[in-house]
Amino acid sequence: MSTTALGIPSFRSGTESVPAAEGPQTAKEFASDQEVRWCPGCGDYAVLKAVQSFLPDLGLRRENIVFVSGIGCSSRFPYYLDTYGMHSIHGRAPSIATGIATAREDLSVWVVTGDGDALSIGGNHLIHALRRNVNMTILLFNNRIYGLTKGQYSPTSEIGKITKSTPVGSLDHPFNPVSLALGAEASFVARTIDSDRKHLTSVLAAAAAHRGTSLVEIYQNCPIFNDGAFDAIKDPDTKDHAIIPLEHGKPITFGTRGADGHGDKGLTRGPASGIEVVDVAQTGLEALLVHDAHHPDPSTAFAISRLTDSGYLNRSPHRHLPPGRAAHLRRPRPPTGHRRPRHRRGQRHRPAHPAHQRRRHLDRRLSTSTRPARTPLHDLCDRAALRRRQGQGLRRRVPLSTASTRASGCCTSTPTSASTAAPVSRSVLRRRSSTRTTSRMS
Amino acid sequence: MTARELDRVVIRFAGDSGDGMQLTGDRFTQDTAAFGNDLSTLPNFPAEIRAPQGTIPGVSSFQVHFANYDILTPGDRPDVLVAMNPAALKANVGDLAKGATIIVDAHDFTKRNLTKVGYAESPLDDGSLGDFAVHALDLTGMTVEAVKEFGLSRKDAARAKNMFALGLVSWLYGRDVTGTVSYLTEKFAGKPAIRDANVAAVRAGWNFGETTETFAVSYVVKPAQVPAGTYRNITGNLALAYGLIAAGVRSGLPVFLGSYPITPASDILHELSKHKAFGVTTLQAEDEIAGIGAAIGASFAGSLGVTTTSGPGIALKSEAIGLAVMTELPLLVIDVQRGGPSTGLPTKTEQADLLQAMYGRNGEAPVPIVAPQSPGDCFAAAVEAARIAITYRTPVMLLSDGYLANGSEPWRIPDVQILPTIDPAFATADGEAFLPYSRDPETLARPWAVPGTAGLEHRIGGLEKADGHGNISYDPANHDLMVRTRQAKVERIAESLPPLEVDDPSGPPGSGAKVLVIGWGSTYGPIGAACRRVRRAGYHVAQTHLRHLNPFPNDLGDILRRYDRVVCPEMNLGQLSKLLRAEYLVDVRPITSVRGLPFGAEQLSEDLIAHLTDVEDPQ
After folding, report:
1. Closest Cα to residue A188, out of A125, A137, A252, A132?
2. From the CA of A87, how many Å to the nearest CA of chain B?
3. What is the ipTM for the molecules in this complex?
4. Are residues B439 and B549 part of one domain?
């Protein structure tokens, strides 16, 4: 077996081969005649509005736009847009969109999917769509819960999540969709949030402009089954500390904003691996990492994405953690129904059940500094949820495993805000879209 | 030396799976096709790419039946067996006709190889092959000697022994090896030593036959008389790929294949991937589901979406086939059946996916089914499946099988202009509100509006759609209407089918034979050959064969009822019989075989005679 140069034609933009609209369009033209039937307060409304308002700016012929979805609450999306659309089957939207995009380069193809649809039942299609890199945009609505099936934990739910199917807490370690996408060789990855219309719109524009498969993770609130999941990054008191905006060509800062617009914390390369959070006052701006959205090597983007999940922020100067606390980064043992809650686990009185010993052994094997579990964002969100639940007298249902690893209220990573915000996008130039050419064997 | 004329011969080449027996058989077949005989082949090989050397499970064989008249099967009992080692002899000797010729490579009949397959003593010496004309020749030794000038290692030199055997058998039956020589020259163009060694081995084998006195006679099988035309030898998978391309050309649609490799269907993907020039796009997907998903997407976008697989793949694609039923998009689902269940017998044939094709989905999800009856017929079946899919906006299942896929026969290349034209009749905007679930009154097909058509923007999906405007509907009456409409649409296809042909030399249906043999798919050849035997034995029997399994032809019920007995041979446990009984309340008697091999005509004719005598003289 040998390889050959494919001679893939280069396209500058994701919409270059799609016919442009003849005149100005309005958001109303993109609204179908169907009544929108999501729950009141659902984040999907905000995203729908943002997309309907954004599409006229895209300036493409409405009949050349196709939205494909899988199954889940968000997957009703295509019915509410007056474009071509297909509400397909669970998890398979990326494969159907691949067929559409490969057969017709004159179409602007969009996939609407959720955390369950894209990361659970359709995980295989998602990673292969990303590596194949045909020209389409995937909007991944992440509410960290199963909504349509009424509230089971999802592949992005935090460990210990109490749901209908996990009454004593979920054992499963969640995916970080941005890390997953970068690991799957995605050529464009961004994260945004339903409540920030301006940033959401700018991300949509950048994603549509990218030639290849773009993945946009949209944090989206489910008011029924996972309300407040993203409160920490919406709450005016905490959001500056919870969001790390990534703008191409600018030093990465967050936290309390000074007069120069920069936050009081920033990111530098860590001595051991990845990224560290530093005090800008101590290091100076010039020491900070400058975000490069087009760097061909995704390592830095990946390291930044890990800030969401890694607990690195626990090692920020403010914590004064002693060195060598790498163990802190290990995946905590998932709680089980048989284990005593952490706050009562002073000493061990009884030997663990053999099954649990096996489980701990497994945990140790899985524990590496690159695969830690608790996330500052999760912690903040849990804290917000905790506050809320305390008010509702539901304190006992809070996953207890979170207690020891809860962060001190500093940060997490979400590229967002700022007028010229660039998403965590990488290597636009590195990989050309393979639409048609590679898939069309000669 | 005398040359004796024969009307037909069956030869089986057998050896280790690394011995190149498939290539040897294929080359002999190509030379035989070029000579002008009618022929039919049966490749039979293990699923392991290289099974342990010299063992029974590692035996790979290729059987070719050729004749001076039109033949229907690869033959039951070989007249000649070429066995490259003791395992190949042991695995195949039981199938031989008495008096058959056996050519063995004596070089490989070592103590070790004999022990490996359980021979206490060499069968070449113990008299156990007394019923056969045995030629024990040192094929390996003669090959090594013949190619020594090319400086190959002994191992590489010995590998050309299959070509020596091919040359010898070609001499025995008067086949010209020119085609094989030019094939080898091209195949090994980059490896001159290998090329020259193989060519020398073929020639040496031929010359050995010519000069030795081992063979007292050679044989002549004259070309068959066939209708005028240009013929080529073709396998079922190749004919199917060509049929899909032809369907694309005749419908004006680009063909889009979304597929995942699976035995024995992968060759269709391989072939279609070469034909970008005909507007074919192929996508090797990450799994079976993505393969059909991409094909559905392409169909939505205005291509002829195709997915190819075998039984296990159909199981994975079932939900997506349901989506295509619900969205009423044209789609071809090609199932090259193999032995099941589960992984089953990947390289062997079976017809046990009929009920899966018919019913293997949730809900009432009718899917039209067509089946080819011979390797060459895979071409026409593909065109017919595309006609139905495009005209009726529906997924169509095409049930080929491993025997058709890998077997070959001479195929008359059709004039493209006489193939049916297929009109995709895309919907166009007329200023009225577009109704994606309105219906053509004749076919009940819904409009196919492809993206890019202004004014026809619409949304489809797996949720139940309201009649007409196609919005989501949970209305009980609407669901009842839509379920019945989808069923009625598939049944409506029967109106477009020609009358079913019944072959009964004894008279018009109902007046001659009392027994009708009905089949579908690849059993056509064995059933036809068995009927010939039965008729030669003085019985009357009628034969009919179904191209369409869903819907059945409109006249099928009347035809079945005209006979005292209906017999249905199938390579499953009676799946078509079950459908026919349920549909027509006719007591169809199944004859079943699930050995991973096609029916043998001899055994089948005995089974038919049992039915015939039972009907004539009921006990």
Report:
1. A137
2. 4
3. 0.91
4. no
